[in-house]
From TrEMBL:
Name of the protein described by the UniProt record: Uncharacterized protein
Source species: Acetonema longum DSM 6540
Amino acid sequence: MTLDEHIYSCSGTEHGLELKRLLQELKHRRETEIRPATRFLGNTLLQQIGHVQSENLEEKKALEWYLAHPSPKSKEEYAMELVDGQMSRETELAILGYDDKARAEVRRKVIEKNAARGYYEDAR
């Protein structure tokens, strides 16, 4: 029985509804996760850090535009540049040899380190 057939066979059950919810959540995660740009995986580390630096400049320009012309559109454009920067950095980690699992482990370690420094505590 395929996964689709299994889901269909229990679609009216609590189990089926939970499976459907989990699949939708996985699909959403896959569509929105930060992942390397495979087009640039052949870059050297120096080429990629150059790309990261160019993304930093684009972020700065978008921020300056947003501050000078605040609007939902300029805010979203700035946010998109920030995410472009994240993806460029994720690509650099992949070029360095970190696969999905290794990148997740590095993120976990950084979160743990930052938590120990109190970075996630309420600033109020």
